[in-house]
Write a structure and sequence with these properties.
Helix content is about 45%, strand content about 15%. The chain has helices at about 20-40, 55-65, 65-85, 100-115, 170-180, 190-200, 230-235, 235-240, 265-280, 310-315, 320-330, 340-370, 380-405, 405-430, 430-435, 440-460, 465-475, and strands at about 5-10, 10-15, 40-50, 90-95, 115-125, 130-135, 140, 145-150, 155-165, 185, 205, 210, 215-220, 220-225, 255-260, 285-290, 295, 335-340. Helix 12 packs parallel to helix 14 and helix 15 (about 430-435) packs antiparallel against helix 16. The protein is elongated, with a radius of gyration of 26 Å. Bound molecules: 5'-O-[(L-methionyl)-sulphamoyl]adenosine. 5'-O-[(L-methionyl)-sulphamoyl]adenosine (MSP) binds next to strand 2, helix 1, helix 7 and strand 15.
């Protein structure tokens, strides 16, 4: 049976425009989705927008439009961003869709039927920007006297009737679950944070609000709207057709991976599995939390005016260069700094020079010296075999690394082969063989073409457009670009299209 794989991004708040932080989570998830498809798996890749709650209601009011109209506009912008960054989602869910509202209400009913929801009153701190409740002990006071939560978001004191989820009762079961599933939260630093948070004891969680209206009504008590995080997390099952557990899509549950930023781990790794278990559903298999980007050393913020739209970057540098940079620059779990100079350097050295030139040199030699015909494979020399074996081993290595969301290491593995191939071409000097040993020249160029084919295949999830162009130039048929197809050599003698550079060097006046 084909292996199934369900991957998700967080659903993005529609209070503001998409920026590189959002693109980052989506591109990372996209690379995994594309890799799994290349591997022949049946993938369901979900993204979408989180449209309810006080924060969105407030942003709409500031813009002077109704929340729904505002959400429609910003959600469309996120969809456009995903499209332009090459995010190959299978479904884009919006929490204002009827399918979501119905499924979410049913999740509530199941949690209530299990005795895990009760009516009380909430009194405490709330940060609208984070849509999160904080304990007194988590707060600090800013220089201007404003009380802020751990993220720096101002808090306000709220006091209102509220339904609660009996989270306190789930402490032991959650700890047992983490214990039995050591891979559930990654990287390990985040796992430790979550463990110590849960070990510290859990308070019941306020899961409804009465002080504003922009949310899903609580079943049976429409004075309340559901807490936006309960609403949002439910997207991962409502998109699969929940509550219809017989829907073909529902076979994708439990999710193989929720990719999230580090600030929202608690919601995914503590609240979400507890909600699901309370409703009698299986928790997801894994939550991976990545780090945060700053821009040129500073936190991205509207007030600093340094918020970067990934679409602008793509227009300037090419979509694939941006995708590559984001996953190459820092280890996935760590924070990183985005700089224009850093991006240009990687584009020019690693993409244009190391990989682009390698392909360009090899392919133009074939065009010029072999009448554009792919040379036959020949009995390999030791040097040939060494390079070909290193290339062949890439598929397995990258697969294992991507299963751990180690994008940077995966790219580093690929670049080891790129560098080895550059050394190989320099040592073999096929341009010189033209006059001395035509057969050997052909053999060398074929080794290079085969190595490039592996590279372009394993790199295609990262850089789909440019690697597709490279595969075109290598004569690899569009229907034979999966990992498994690498086992079948291309026939010698096929005509290759004229080579054209895949990564133009970027000459930056601003640097
Ligand atoms: N709506 C919630 C998620 C609900 S999921 C059930 C939310 N939305 S968000 O729009 O604020 O952020 C979504 C994602 O963008 C998070 O994974 C977050 O880490 C990521 N990023 C937002 N800013 C970021 C950076 N500056 N750097 C890296 N990622 C950041 O949270």
């Amino acid at each position: 049976m084909t292996q199934r794989c369900f991957l998700t991004t967080p659903i993005y708040y529609v209070n503001g425009a998409p920026h590189i932080g959002h693109a980052y989570t989506s591109i990372a998830a996209d690379v995994l989705a594309r890799w799994k498809r290349l591997d022949g798996q049946e993938v369901f890749f979900l993204t979408g927008t989180d449209e309810h709650g006080q924060k969105v209601e407030k942003a709409a009011a500031e813009a002077g439009v109704e929340p729904q109209e505002f959400a429609d506009r910003v959600s469309a912008d996120f969809r456009d961003m995903a499209g332009r960054m090459g995010v190959s989602y299978d479904d884009f869910i919006r929490t204002t869709e009827p399918r979501h509202k119905q499924g979410c209400a049913e999740l509530w009913r199941r949690m209530a039927a299990a005795g895990d929801i009760y009516l009380g009153a909430y009194e405490g701190w709330y940060a609208v920007r984070d849509e999160a409740f904080y304990d007194e002990a988590e707060l600090t006071t800013r220089a201007d006297g404003v009380r802020v939560g751990p993220s720096g978001a101002p808090v306000e004191w709220v006091r209102e009737p509220s339904y609660f989820f009996r989270l306190s009762a789930w402490q032991d079961r959650l700890l047992a679950f983490y214990e039995a599933n050591p891979e559930f939260i990654a990287p390990v630093s985040r796992r430790n944070e979550v463990l110590s948070f849960v070990r510290g004891g859990l308070n019941d969680l306020s899961i409804s609000r009465t002080s504003f209206r922009w949310g899903i009504p609580v079943p049976g008590d429409p004075d309340h709207v559901m807490y936006v995080w309960l609403d949002a997390l439910a997207n991962y099952i409502t998109a699969l057709g929940f509550p219809d557990e017989t829907a073909p899509r529902f076979a994708f549950w439990p999710a193989d991976l929720h990719l999230v930023g580090k600030e929202i781990v608690r919601f995914h790794a503590v609240y979400w599995p507890a909600f699901l278990m309370a409703a009698g559903l299986a928790p997801p298999r894994r939550v991976y939390s990545h780090g945060w980007w700053t821009v040129e050393g500073e936190k991205m913020s509207k007030s600093l005016g340094n918020v970067i739209d990934p679409r602008d970057l793509a227009a300037t540098f090419g979509r694939d260069a941006v995708r590559y940079f984001l996953l190459r620059e820092v280890p996935f779990g760590n924070d990183g700094d985005f700089s224009r100079r850093g991006l240009v350097t990687r584009l020019n050295t690693e993409l244009a020079n190391d990989l682009g030139n390698l392909a360009q040199r090899s392919l133009s030699l074939i065009a010029r010296n072999c009448a554009s015909l792919l040379p036959e494979r020949a009995a390999p020399t030791e040097a040939d075999a060494a390079l070909l074996e290193q290339a062949a081993a890439l598929v397995g290595r990258i697969g294992l690394l991507l299963d751990r969301q180690a994008f940077q290491d995966a790219l580093e593995e690929a670049w080891r082969v790129v560098r080895a191939a550059n050394t190989y071409i320099d040592h073999q000097a096929p341009w010189a063989l033209r006059k001395t040993d035509l057969a050997r020249m052909g053999a060398v160029l074929r080794v290079l073409a085969d190595t490039l084919r592996v590279l372009a295949t394993v790199l295609s999830p990262f850089m789909p457009e440019s690697m597709a162009r490279m595969l075109d130039q290598l004569g690899v048929p569009a229907g034979a670009r999966r990992l498994a197809d690498l086992a079948t050599p291309l026939p010698g003698g096929i005509v290759l299209p004229p080579p054209a550079g895949v990564f133009p060097r970027f000459v930056d006046d601003a640097v």
